[in-house]
Amino acid sequence: MPLQIKELYVKVTVSADEEQGSSKQGANTASESSGDSVMNKDEIIAECVEQVIEILKEKMEP
C-alpha cells in the first residue's frame, strides 16, 4: 500500500559555533557579517533542498 505524505515539517538549527546552548550564540549571530551569513545560509538551504529532491526522486521510482 503506498504511503502519501500530506504535510512535512522540517526543523533545522544551524550554528557556526561548536558550543551549543551558550549565551554567546545569540551574540555571535548579531555580530556576524550579514553578507557572509546570508551566503552561508543560502548555500546550506540549497544543499538541503537538493538532498530532499533526491530523496523524493528515489521514493517516486518504482
Automatic annotation (TrEMBL):
InterPro entries, alphabetized: DUF5908
Region (Disordered): 16-41
Polar residues bias spans: 22-37
Pfam families: DUF5908 (PF19265)
Protein name (record): Uncharacterized protein
Organism of this sequence: Aquimarina algiphila
